[in-house]
Design brief:
The structure holds 2 protein chains of 2 kinds. Chain A is built from 16 helices and 28 strands. By secondary structure, chain A is an alpha/beta fold. Chain A has 3 domains: 133 residues, Aldehyde Oxidoreductase, domain 4; 181 residues, Aldehyde oxidase/xanthine dehydrogenase, a/b hammerhead (Aldehyde Oxidoreductase, domain 3), CATH 3.90.1170; 329 residues, Aldehyde oxidase/xanthine dehydrogenase, molybdopterin binding domain (Aldehyde Oxidoreductase, domain 4, 2-Layer Sandwich). Chain A has a 7-stranded mixed sheet with strand order 3-5-1-12-9-10-11, sandwiched between helices. Chain A has a 6-stranded mixed sheet with strand order 7-16-15-14-8-28. In chain A, strands 18-23-24-27 form a 4-stranded mixed sheet, with helices on both faces. In chain A, helix 9 crosses helix 10 and helix 12 runs parallel beside helix 13. The N terminus of chain A is likely disordered. In chain B, helix 4 packs across helix 7. Among the domains of chain B are: 73 residues, no CATH class; 72 residues, DNA polymerase, domain 1 (Orthogonal Bundle). The N terminus of chain B is likely disordered. Classes of the chains: A alpha/beta, B alpha+beta. Chains A and B meet through helix 1, strand 1, helix 3, helix 7 and helix 14 of A and helix 4, helix 5, helix 6 and helix 7 of B.
Chain lengths: 733, 231
């Protein structure tokens, strides 16, 4: 770390302010180039033939009739993959194009390039693939138990993480148990997967794509194409939302393969239905919990078994398992812990990263348990949580001592203290009722309920991962005015990172003009836009580069630079983390924790089972709000996705087949479903983080779901052990 | 959880044939592919030369200007797009959305679902908001179409665009063109009497980043400013 004597400048467009987004004008004018909007002279359209079976042996692929179709330029199978026909974030276990076996419905088997999307689609219809259908493995718990076919060498357990702390046989006066289920949630970003691959004269390829992590895409592409890294260059296309769903590959290798094969630019765009098959989802989970406590509600032990369905390929299942296990008891101080979490291979759709990443599933279970414990002890649900709330200094189940603020109690007190919405009175406005203008009730059968929840999330990558960001900052005088440029490979996916990076440079260097250059692979990795980490890590790297430039400036002001260009490239890391002990799960696995609490108020039509979330208020500690407006946006967005999981969002599978791959059948919250939120933002600095900041994006997704469900329970008296809660769960019919 | 659709989704979903985009339907029967296979050889009836709005389709059966186009034939469609006269030659099955994006290069209008579920493709036709994926270009012969690219006057943003920036009413921006077009119409329709009313009349536009609170504030603000849009 360099030392600079100058202090950070307070500005109206710097840290702590909410200046306009640099991409805002282009986005409201329709001029922002999303990856789906890209166009190239002479470009072809790529399309993907996918497996119709969850599990089958391929007996033959005949592409002759497809190739014969006029306008078709390439029909490629696994035999055309020049490099290693396997990729994956953690394990290279997923074929670029299926070889002898397909392991999920929707698995890519053949790709084509044609002069028109319609020609490409017709070509796919002419490909003949022979399948010998096999019995799919569709249940994670039995897959872990070794039942059913072995889908990958080594068996169907992707990862098992045990956590052992204290006395494994601890007993308690009050014991509550429960079995909980979490359905498969989809990221449902609005801009489906898309990209444009342009073959280059040097035998390489330039790929413009919407992604969350350019360098890990690049690493996987070069292995599949058998090209050196400098021959595959990626530039970030405009990203229409991500939420974890773009961390894995979709069109990347396919588009590059087709472009290199045809010598023509190739564009690929999934439609909404294909998007449901084209990216990983949130792991569905089955969770068994037992909480033991004193009669006053003080926790003695937590024991849990968690089964996460990873689907056909590993993706990031290993890390998701690590999170669900290490965060499995929630933000509570528990002396005796025994948690086991498994991630399984099945023939269901592959699951991986989605906002909240393992912490979401665990939170629904442990928060449901805390409500059961409160009931068993005759305590208020907030009181039992406060009694057990962790704080700075608490020892986690992993043995890690929490060394920065953990204001769990304060967050709970804040949401409890917020005024409740007024009780309905007089002639009700239909729009405020469950069922809305469908006119299903005028208030009859409607019961109000209030519920609370609090959650914990690790921020940044964990378990010994070398988590860093590379940035280059330049300062020079342009047209008589100091101007800075920032170059990184970090992916702006809508969260506002580009604004935050500008703010940091403005405050650190005291310049107004800051340009954030397009993200690409001509600079080193900035890591993934996930784990709520970019402001922390890439923001931390930008700060470090600015500090070095300030040192180089010495006594000069930026305007006095003359012809000099100050240019600093920095690779910046957060504190290292440790791997978990394989048998005890002990280790300082996480670098930072984030916390949020919610209070939900719902009106439930108890006869029809319809829910209206009347209020969903939140308190979250963000350490330091670099951009307060963006922080609120993240909290609103994360809370909405949690609400969605609570009452509507689930990919339904039957025998491994997705039944609802559309926005007609997979519902996400509309403006009518999401109430206006009252939000308290706490800024308790983490002394180890740049500016004291704490990652923001994920924590609100975690506590939102259990708070909404707790409120529905309060209104209905139903146990509600599964999300999303369906009308039949409420009516019992 | 979704309320009744308040927007004028008058183009019946069942009337929209496959748009020829992308390959997912190859193995997944949907209402669309069923329709396509049933009617693949059938000619498509086109309402030609009718003015803007949904009335063209509704009255097509009794219109003497109805003509029949053979399979694979294209039709010339004249549109006024953002005040400019534009002509596209398209097969009758091409949606207005695809005509705008792929033929006229107006990619500001987004394709989030292509089935009228998300609202990202909302444009104004004859001053009314419609989902451009749910209408065929040939159904809009002669229509006045306004897309998000047509709102600003040079560098001066439309008040609704300004309000969306001021209120941080988007993150990824993927739904934003549709939200803004819907908001312009919502204000014009006078459906901004309260937050509840705005929510009801904006509920056909999904935002996965869930910037809803800020969208409502932006619409309210633009409406309050009395800067009613004249197109």
């Amino acid at each position: 770390m360099t030392t600079s004597t100058k202090s950070t400048v307070t500005r109206t467009d710097g840290i702590g302010a909410s200046p306009r987004r640099p991409d805002g004008t282009a986005k409201v004018r329709g001029e922002f180039a999303y990856s789906s909007d890209l166009w190239h002279e002479d470009m072809l359209w790529g399309a993907t033939l996918r497996s119709p079976h969850p599990y089958a042996r391929i007996t033959g692929i005949d592409i002759a009739r497809a190739l014969a179709l006029p306008g078709v330029y390439a029909v490629l199978t696994h035999a055309d993959v020049p490099g290693v026909n396997r990729y994956g974030l953690e394990h290279a276990d997923q074929p670029v194009l299926a070889e002898d076996v397909v392991r999920y419905r929707g698995e890519p088997v053949v790709v084509v390039a044609a002069d028109h999307p319609e020609t490409a689609r017709r070509a796919l219809e002419r490909v003949e693939v022979g399948y010998e259908v096999l019995d799919p493995v569709t249940d994670a718990e039995s897959a872990v138990a070794g039942q059913g076919a072995e889908l990958h060498p080594g068996g169907n357990v992707v990862r098992h993480v045990p956590i052992r702390r204290g006395d494994p046989d601890a007993a308690a006066e009050v014991v509550v148990t429960g079995r909980y289920e979490v359905g498969m949630q989809d990221q449902a970003f609005l801009g489906p997967e898309s990209g444009l691959a342009v073959p280059a004269e040097d035998g390489g390829v330039d790929l413009y794509v919407a992604t969350q992590w350019l360098h890990v895409d690049q690493r996987q592409i070069v292995a599949a194409l058998d090209l050196p890294e400098d021959k595959v260059r990626l530039t970030l296309g405009g990203v229409g939302g991500a939420f974890g769903g773009r961390e894995d590959l979709s069109i990347q290798v396919h588009a590059c393969l087709l472009a290199l094969h045809t010598g023509r630019p190739v564009k690929m765009v999934y439609n909404r239905e294909e998007s449901f098959y084209g990216h990983v989802h949130r792991h569905p989970a089955v969770l068994y919990y037992e909480h033991g406590a004193d009669r006053d509600g003080t926790l003695r032990y937590v024991r849990a078994r968690i089964y996460l369905d990873g689907g056909a390929y590993a993706s990031s299942t290993g890390a998701v398992v690590g999170n669900a296990a290490t965060l499995g008891v929630g933000p509570y101080d528990v002396p005796n812990v025994s948690v086991d979490c498994w991630g399984a291979y099945t023939n269901n759709p592959p699951c991986g990263a989605m906002r909240g990443f393992g912490a979401v599933q665990a939170a629904f279970a442990y928060e449901s348990q805390m409500d059961r414990l409160a009931a068993a002890c005759g305590l208020d649900p907030v009181e039992v949580r406060i009694r057990n709330a962790m704080a700075q200094g608490t020892v986690m189940p992993t043995g890690q001592v929490v060394d920065s603020p953990a204001p769990v109690e304060e967050l709970l007190r804040r949401v409890r203290a917020k005024p409740l919405p007024p009780e309905p009175s007089g002639e009700p406005d239909l729009r405020t009722l469950p069922g809305g203008v469908s006119n299903t009730t005028h208030g009859e059968g409607v019961v109000r309920g209030v519920g609370y929840a609090v959650g914990i999330k690790n921020i940044c990558f964990s378990e010994g991962f070398d988590d860093y960001a590379t940035v280059r900052v330049r300062l020079q005088v342009v047209g008589g005015e100091p101007a800075a440029t920032v170059h990184t490979a970090a992916c702006e996916v809508g969260q506002g990172l580009v604004t935050v990076l500008q703010q940091i440079v403005r405050s650190e260097l005291g310049v107004e003009r800051v340009t954030v250059e397009p993200s690409d692979t001509t600079i080193g990795s900035a890591g993934s836009t996930s784990a709520s980490r970019q402001t922390y890590v890439t923001g931390g790297a930008v700060r470090e580069a600015c500090l070095r430039i300030r040192d180089a400036l010495g006594a000069l002001s930026p305007a006095e630079l003359g012809d000099k260009v100050l240019d600093e490239t920095v690779e910046w890391r957060h504190r290292p983390t440790e791997e978990l002990h394989p048998e005890t799960g002990q280790g300082n696995a996480h670098v930072q924790y984030g916390f949020a609490a919610h209070r939900a108020v719902v009106d439930v039509d108890t006869e029809l089972g319809l829910v209206k979330v009347v209020a969903l208020d939140c308190a979250q500690d963000v350490g330091k709000a670099i951009n307060p407006q963006a922080v609120l946006g993240q909290i609103q967005g994360g809370s909405a996705q949690g609400l969605g999981l609570a009452v509507m969002e689930e990919i339904k599978t039957e025998g491994g087949v997705i039944r609802n791959p559309s926005f007609t059948d997979y519902l996400i919250p509309t403006v009518l479903d999401m109430p206006p939120m009252s939000i308290d933002v706490l800024e308790l600095a983490d002394p180890h983080a740049p500016y004291g900041l704490r990652g923001v994006g994920e924590p609100p997704t975690i506590s939102s779901t259990p708070a909404v469900v707790a409120a529905i329970r309060a209104a209905t008296g139903r146990a509600l052990t599964r999300v999303p809660v369906r009308p039949e769960h409420i009516t019992g019919t | 959880m979704r309320s009744d659709e308040p927007m004028g989704g008058f183009a019946d979903d069942a009337l929209v044939p496959a748009d020829g985009e992308h390959g997912a339907e190859a193995f997944m029967p949907t209402r669309r592919t069923v329709l396509v296979s049933a009617g693949a050889a059938a000619a498509v009836t086109v309402a030609a030369g009718k003015g803007a709005g949904g009335a063209a389709w509704a009255s097509a059966a009794g219109d003497t200007r109805v003509r029949t186009v053979g399979a694979g034939e294209s039709v010339e469609v004249a549109l006024s797009v953002n005040g400019q006269r534009r002509t596209v030659t398209v097969e009758p099955r091409v949606t207005l959305l695809d005509a705008l994006r792929e033929r006229l290069g107006l990619t500001g209008t987004k394709k989030g679902c292509d089935r009228g579920e998300c609202g990202a493709c909302t444009v104004l036709v004859g001053g009314e908001r419609i989902k451009s994926c749910l209408t065929l270009a040939v159904m809009r012969q002669g229509a006045e179409v306004t897309t998000v690219e047509g709102l600003a006057s040079g560098d001066e943003l439309h008040p609704v665009q300004e309000a969306f920036i001021r209120h941080d009413a988007f993150q990824c921006g993927g739904c934003t063109p549709g939200q803004i077009m819907s908001a312009v119409a919502c204000i014009d329709e006078g459906h901004t009497g309260s937050d509840a009313e705005i929510r009801e009349w904006m509920s056909g536009n999904l935002c996965r980043c869930a910037a809803y609170q800020n969208i409502v504030a932006a619409v309210q603000d633009a409406a309050d400013a009395g800067k009613k849009v004249r197109r």
